[in-house]
Task: inverse folding
């Protein structure tokens, strides 16, 4: 019943993150097909996995390059041999970050996000000629300029000596139940407006980048040239609850031990220091159990996950269960390594590479 | 105005965790005085800081030993020279964990929590004679037996060959506005009942352990022998909002850079991968700004903290601000090092020591 109960790695101390390599490969192949069928380039966001091994599988499936969130992640992946990197973030570049970016740009094709004239000028001072994409706000209201203002910023960046390649957005508000298709339409409208704005300012547009795991399937290939989904190799409880995936597509779980049955609850040793404390407004708990879809993590402390159990027989203390983190990106960021089914491990090379 | 704006470490890449050593020392001294004045032993929880340097300051101020949450944390602190360690957790001990515990017990005084006969017997099989405290549920409903059942479990543990030293509880429900005094009373009642239960079963009670940072000041010295607060050396936004501390007592902040002013918000580079995503029900946001008490982190992504700004002039892009994490324990768990005011660093030795 519990697939992990027959797991040969019973001696490994819990909690740890377990990757199902078959499911991982299937997920990577499925997204690659989706992008290829629609004529979109695929530039996966590596912040999800921070793993050169996963990135290698994505590259073998046809990814054109990687997206990263920080200069440190770009450094990790360049050192691992990935030479086409988009830092999809409005970096504030000072002298120190400028040195690091110049070192990267001397060895790889590097794109950087901008969302203000001030940020663009700071980048241009330290990394003359750097290739950039203008970030557009397609409705999440996190960062990025209004789509109609993209051309003004792009022209400013070009005058500062940057190489403007196009525009990008992150439709993060697709992380809401039933929102994906409507948000993909907003994304397309925003990007189309931004492209028009750049064109009006006399700039060529080579890259129109969007997409998230929930919205990738409905991303508008009429305007986008590439998508940057992150979560899809692993999946997580958020995607499960958004119905982006079914639970059989979840490739990463946290193996946890039942340490207590106090008060009739099942208490696992997978706390917030391994699962992460993410809980979106739509989430039904602090995580799910892969083999017990009705169970819910109802309380999460640093080293305790308290589970309201389902109708099946309550597990014994010492049992090992597979917990699905709400948000896999933050769970992976907490792990030193990912464990595979054969007991081998992949190091979390990018762990902590958050600057 | 912004103390950190004059910071000489402007070249250090943000985000990073900055410790104010003077405030840290004051906090450590204040809790040591509080415990001493009330005749309580102080056994700080090291999961908060995971730092031998902080533990050393606590020991110098009179702490009798350390509390840890995992065997890995015990290993880290024993290697750093701390030889009186309480693993305040109902460990499930298998052969591998038993070997690690025996190795610890051969070099240090080690106490372990138990909350079930099954857990106690597993511990006794692998670590015969191990010293234990019986965990009691004082109202948080996370782990621990009902207070009146403590004697039955203690007797079972003693028969299995364990060395029962007493009882402990974690009054975690003290983390609610205005709850501290009432919860301290519940804690005292629960521990008094548990002590009576052990006595009825013919067992001596040497240790009666409770206390949390919010409830430490009102812990009942009539029944408790020691307290185990964790957060107090640093403080955090939770303690600020619970009014356990005033903001001038916060010793740890995350130095972050303003990367965007999109939509009139201040967007910082301190996301959930450095602050942690903790947000208790009573929290007013995802973190606070030390120098801007009215501002609130209203949206938190992995690398973006979106701040609804206060009435003061909006900071420029590139400015550095001090963010107070909601829950300092999870923020520290994400950091490779703590940075001091003179630019030196303390390694996060216990980072990731979560098994």
Result:
């Amino acid at each position: 019943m519990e697939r992990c109960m027959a797991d040969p790695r019973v001696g490994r101390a819990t909690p740890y993150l377990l990757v199902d390599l078959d499911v991982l490969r299937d997920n990577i192949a499925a997204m690659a097909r989706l992008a290829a069928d629609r004529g979109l380039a695929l530039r996966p966001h590596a912040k999800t996995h921070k793993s050169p091994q996963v990135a290698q599988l994505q590259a073998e499936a046809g990814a054109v390059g990687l997206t990263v969130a920080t200069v440190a992640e770009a450094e990790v992946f360049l050192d691992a041999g990935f030479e086409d990197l988009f830092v999809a973030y409005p970096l504030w570049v000072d002298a120190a970050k400028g040195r690091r970016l110049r070192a990267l740009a001397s060895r790889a094709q590097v794109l950087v996000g901008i969302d203000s004239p001030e940020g663009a000028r700071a980048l241009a001072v330290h990394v003359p000629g750097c290739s950039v994409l203008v970030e557009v706000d397609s409705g999440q209201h996190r960062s990025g300029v209004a789509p109609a203002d993209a051309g003004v910023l792009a022209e400013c960046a070009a005058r500062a000596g940057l190489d403007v390649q196009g525009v990008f957005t992150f439709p993060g508000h697709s992380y809401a139940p039933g929102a994906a298709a409507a948000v993909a339409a907003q994304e397309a409208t925003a990007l189309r407006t931004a492209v028009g704005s750049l064109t009006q300012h006399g700039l060529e547009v080579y890259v129109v980048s969007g997409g998230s795991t929930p919205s990738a399937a409905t991303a508008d290939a009429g305007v986008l040239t590439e998508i940057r989904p992150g979560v899809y190799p692993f999946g997580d409880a958020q995607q499960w609850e958004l119905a982006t995936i079914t639970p059989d597509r979840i490739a990463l779980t946290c193996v946890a031990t039942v340490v207590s049955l106090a008060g009739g609850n099942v208490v696992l040793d997978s706390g917030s220091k391994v699962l992460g404390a993410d809980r979106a407004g739509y989430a039904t708990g602090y995580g799910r159990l892969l083999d017990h879809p009705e169970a819910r993590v109802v309380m999460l402390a640093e080293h305790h996950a308290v589970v309201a159990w389902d109708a099946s027989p309550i597990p014994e203390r010492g049992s090992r269960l597979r917990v699905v983190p709400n948000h896999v990106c933050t769970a992976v960021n907490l792990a030193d390594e990912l464990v595979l089914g054969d007991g081998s491990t992949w190091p979390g090379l990018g762990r902590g590479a958050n600057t």
